[in-house]
Amino acid sequence: MNQLDVVAFGVVPYIAASIFIVGHLWRYKYDKFGWTTRSSEVYEKRLLRIGSPLFHFGILMVIGGHVVGLLIPKTWLSAIGIDEHMYHLGAIVLGSLAAVMTLAGLAILIYRRRTNRSVFLATTVMDKAMFLVLGLTLALGTAATVLVQIFGGGYEYRGTISPWFRSLFVFQPDIEFMATVPGVFSAHIVCAMVLFAMWPFTRLVHVWSAPLGYLVRPYLVYRARDTRRDPAGRPGWGKASLPGTGRRPTSSSQPPIR
């Protein structure tokens, strides 16, 4: 274990986490109007309708796989009947499917931004950097799955990377676990930490803005322009009348406009 490993796996994770948390708080306080994806659907829809679902559903599967593989100990999975063979089979099959969906969706979205002038002009420098780091992180994760797990004989990361990752949460990073980790896994982890440090300053902040308020907000009250819709007895639908007269206002009843 050299000094570079100590910095990469014992110091950088906390730097990235600090930037991730403080950056989100700062942006939410000082840049609420910029807390958006800057949607470009108005410029182009055909490719967006293909690439966006592929990418979003794929990345959700990727995140779910990482949560199970890194945060849940093997003993817990064994206790509910998921043995080593079943876990790795599911991880390879579902992980490969998630990787294909995510990379295909990302490739379509990047192609769309490069070929559509209006969408390209709406792309910021930070967006380009985010796409680069995100693509590299996904590519390294896919390479780790294909080259090591499928064609390289496999690697038991739940005995090394997973304990190291969980040790970060108790502020006692056990860096020794990372001494024998294959290089492609280490590079994937470092790229992921860079991505998390960039997260608060990119369009990725929109993932925390699910419109859950729409489920509980009150109905909007409006008047229909169709005069045939006049349900009796419902507030807001009755015909207007002049105060104290009961008569409907006419054009002659209105005060002159000066």
Describe the protein.
With 258 residues, the protein is an all-alpha fold. It is 57% helix and 0% strand. The chain is built from eight helices and no strands. It has helices at 3-30, 46-71, 74-79, 84-115, 117-121, 125-150, 161-168, 183-198. Helix 1 packs parallel to helix 8 (183-198), helix 4 runs antiparallel to helix 6 (125-150) and helix 6 (125-150) packs antiparallel against helix 8. The protein is globular and about 85 Å long.
Which class do the helix and strand fractions yield?
Answer: mainly alpha
Helix content: 55-70%
Q: Report how far the terminal alpha carbons are from each other.
A: 85 Å
pLDDT averaged over residues: 85
**What composes the largest sheet?**
none
H/E series, N to C?
HHHHHHHH
Number of helices: 8
Share of β-strand residues? under 5%
The general outline is globular
- Beta strand count: 0
State Rg.
27 Å
Low-confidence spans: none
